[in-house]
Amino acid sequence: MNDNSLIENRVRRWIEKAVIGLNLCPFAKSVYMKDQVRITICEAQNTQALTGALYDELRLLEATPAQQTDTTLLVIPNMFEQFSDFNDYLDIADAVLDELELVGEIQLASFHPLYQFADTEPDDVDNYTNRAPYPILHLLREDSLDKAAAQYPDASVIFERNIAVVRELGHDGWCRLLRDEQK
After folding, report:
1. Domain residues for 22?
2. Which of 113, 116, 97 is nearest to 105 (CA)?
């Protein structure tokens, strides 16, 4: 098995055990089970190459029917060891969306192994809701989000529920849940 296959398998286990298994995203199971989630491993090692890959993925998602690919995970295993660097890159990613005139059509969500919300400490368990085995840019179609959100008129309920779930699970429980991820 090559490195990209190992990386994709880790991402799939995270989706299955945490995102779907803990129901952190109530919309994920349906598109994942229909094989409408594209997982792309980006081998970029610098910002210019990553930005090129982001352009390509956004164009591909825009040109592909949602029934075929509803959402894309752009996995970045070779960059952004520090969360702050990843967080800084999000400004560039937003500028790419704007340049391609996709604001309002595609939304970016971000995940990182050391994800940290503002006003939290690095080891706060609340951060785990956005932690993943690698830095990931999640490209979501606004139309799909709108349809899914219709089931949850108050999206803050999802966020609050997720915080409660990870707090109950705790650091040790999270590590046990994703034990295979730690190997």
Report:
1. 3-182
2. 97
The residue among 21, 19, 25, 61 whose CA lies nearest residue 148 is 25
Helix (H, G, I), strand (E, B) or coil at 180: helix
- Whether the model pTM is above 0.85: yes
Could you tell me if 112 and 75 are in contact, meaning their C-beta atoms sit under 8 angstroms apart? no
Please give the chain's pLDDT, 183 residues, in tens: 679 999 999 999 999 999 999 989 888 888 999 999 999 999 999 999 999 999 999 999 999 999 999 999 999 999 999 999 999 999 999 999 999 999 999 999 999 999 999 999 999 999 999 999 999 999 999 888 777 667 766 766 888 889 999 999 999 999 888 875 444
Structure tokens, 163: 């915080």
- Per the structure, the count of domains in the chain is 1
- DSSP assignment string, 1-55: --HHHHHHHHHHHHIIIIIITTTSSTTHHHHHHTT-EEEEE----SHHHHHHHHH
C-beta atoms surrounding 101 within 10 Å: 9
Rounded distance, CA 135 to CA 121, Å?
19
DSSP state letters, 123-161: T-GGGGGG--SS-EEEEEEHHHHHHHHTT-S-THHHHHH
